[in-house]
Predict the 3D structure of the following.
Amino acid sequence: MAIDISKIKKEKKVDTQPFKLNTSILSKEISLNKGFNDANKQTLYQELSLLMNSGVDINRSLEIIAEHFKKEKDKKTIKDIRNYLIDGKSFSQSMELIEGFSPYEFYSVRIGEESGRLQMILEQLATFYKRKIRQRKQVANAMTYPLLVIITSIVAVGFMLNFVVPVFSEVFKRFNGELPAITQTVISASDFFNKNIFLILIFIVTIIATIIYVRKKEWYRKYYSAILLRLPIAGELTKKIYAARFCHAMSLLISAHVPMIRAIDLVEKMIGFYPFEQVMKEIKKSVMRGEFLYETLQKYDFFDRKLVALVKVAEEVNKMEVVFNELSHQYNDEIEGRISVMSNLLEPILIIIVGAMVGIILIAMYLPLFQLSTSFG
């Protein structure tokens, strides 16, 4: 979404009507913002910062931004914020009244309003969501090819078990000979697959539907995250991703002069990963007891020695904002490198696995034929 600032500056206000307070909006419950996703938030903060830096007031800026959203529900979100502003509320209060914005966001904006650094806060929020979206895309891109390979292998193996193996099985029955163990295993698997294909499909659909239904339940988040963190490569990558988000969030909040306890509390609500949320709660308790931040960080393996050491120095020289910002950049670079390595490793491994599966089925089918031809020879 590109906004031409030169055109906006040339516009003149022609509305000379007396200002009327829009009270109708106060009686409405706004609950549509579940669809106001991270990409929309990045656009909102980025364009709002750009327009305000160009001298456009916040009401006019929101009006312009709303026009550039394509979906009506996204336009309505921006218009609802603007209507709250017209009713006399601040930008942060307007965000707080609308579902979909986290405490991390509207508290940061509130600090920006009070300190006169709103534009800087908006820029940093835009940067935060830009990085978050980029990381998500990198993971998605890294997993696209492996997923295609997995799906292709499932289709290929399913086709062979459903159509190819039964043909060979009928041929083998005519000879009444003893089949190799590998052939018997593949034929048994084919028979089971053909007899229970609908039950298998129902089972798969049920599993997927159950995961979708319970994915936000606390017990599921707890066990899912525990399994994820134990995976050899994905576990370490996950820790890096959330450490990077922690550092960027702390940098933003500290630069906005948010008190340490409140900053930790907001990061806990913003992160959205169960183990990290629990760690943040414990860190908050420790800091409230008077411990230094670095002392409590070193108790948890989410934070490596480099982070703990730099935070210790930052606390001593009062440079927390600078250190957290630099750590955020370093972790993001590491994440990009690890995602690239993970993608490069997965591709050949999956190709080998798929080749082995297809090869086993082919060997199982042709081995009796080779034995038969040898006996005739």
